[in-house]
Amino acid sequence: MGAFDFLLQGLAVAAEPMMLMYALIGVTLGTAVGVLPGIGPALTVALLLPVTYRLDPAGSLIMFAGIYYGGMYGGSTTSILLNTPGESASIITALEGNKMARKGRGGPALATAAIGSFVAGLIATLLLAFLAPSVVKLALIFGPREYFALMVLAFITVSSAFGDSTLRGLTSLFVGLALACIGIDQLTGQARMSFGVPELLDGIEVTTLAVAMFAVGEALAIAGAGARPDDEVLAVKGSVWMTRADWARSWKPWLRGTFIGFPIGAMPAGGAEIGTFLSYATEKKLAKHPEEFGHGAIEGVAGPEAANNASAAGTLVPLLTLGLPTTATAAIMLAGFQQFGLQPGPLLFATNPGLVWGLIASLLIANFMLLVLNLPLIGLWVKLLTIPRPWLYAGILLFATLGTIGANPSTFELGMLLGFGVLGYVMRLFGYPIAPIVVGLILGPMAEQQLRRALAISQGDWTSLVSSPVAAGLLLIAALALIVPLILRARGKGQVLSQLAGDED
């Protein structure tokens, strides 16, 4: 069967009444939490991860996808009305959208963001459905060497892409890899780094670590920052609907943003923020009214928002086909799969096609639901923005605690939640990225397993790791992904220093 037939089967699964209910709950929860200030999709998904713990895998993952997409949608409301981007990918939306809101055009800004996200999500999900089988066929020829090289590439790109320092990214990664070593050795059955604590024999729960690092760590960081004035929430004045001129100026940026964001999101070293900045630069060059940019140009909201959502769908290509998370949110989604004993990758398409294609098809349904939810309920989402910040983060701590108790009722697990939360706060304090530590914990055991298999097959010959052209190519790309950012940053610092020297002269 072709991709279209599989997609139709997936739609039959996703259109079941119970699955539709899960999708609706997911998009509503995701939007509600994503709208709240300072909470991006990664924190939203991490916070709501324990909610899906007791559900069946198909319904849980469909609800999870709804939470993911809802969190992406909700972030635009915060950026436009509060000038508070929930994540780096929403910076451009805040730049132009908040200017539109201050001019009394918050309604059209929210509308073009919602419709642009819908168009981009629809096209990108179809691209995902038709590209995934080809990537799976390629991945099926991978052996232990190729998979280990792929894991190394994921480690390097995630460490280099997050934060301002590659060294700090790698440090976070190795902390995650060290945590991944705790528990029973997969091959020998011996206990490692458990220190005689029975609860550590099963290893560190990814769910606990993700909720602690993203939710508890963020709440502690906000509390540690001290008192700050409340952000001004701009009221939505006039009509929410776009004028004919707004439509004429938005539809091309929607399409351009989609085809810029999707391939960048699918790349191992992608990231939604790259697509949004490229989309913004493209729209600025092609705009008939470039003087409006920086003062509330609707193209500056339409294009980047489409790129942002298309990139979100693009990250699902390596996640579902290869099991590689390329963003923090994708890493949390991978944890969602693993809590049901599922490992995304080519074998999942073969062993459980109904679940995978049902998940992909549910993204189409979630897009329609979000469009219906976002435009009529803008007034409700705006009221959520008025929640006082102390109440908001107290609620986050409460949900994080209750979620952890629901997933694993243990005082030791609560202690680990607090301990990792403090670690997340300290890492934020010193500028260490959070995503690499989660990726290290998730992919570390798989990388170790593939490395030991490759060495067992070659009888301990380390040179066999690069004897495969595919493995050698992936390791070369990983080396370039590590070295090139260092060179670019060194050049950037050199140019700044030379400019300062010139200014002093």
UniProtKB/TrEMBL annotation:
Residue runs in coiled coils: none
Keyword Cytoplasm on entry: no
Protein name: Tripartite tricarboxylate transporter permease
Record-linked PANTHER family: TRICARBOXYLIC TRANSPORT PROTEIN
Keyword check for Repeat: no
Species of provenance: Gemmobacter fulvus
Bilayer-crossing regions: 20-49, 61-82, 109-135, 147-163, 169-187, 316-335, 355-379, 391-410, 422-444, 465-488
InterPro entries reported in the protein's UniProt record: DUF112_TM
Boundaries of every DUF112 domain copy: 20-438
Family matches, as Pfam families: TctA
Keywords carried by this UniProt record: Membrane, Plasmid, Transmembrane, Transmembrane helix
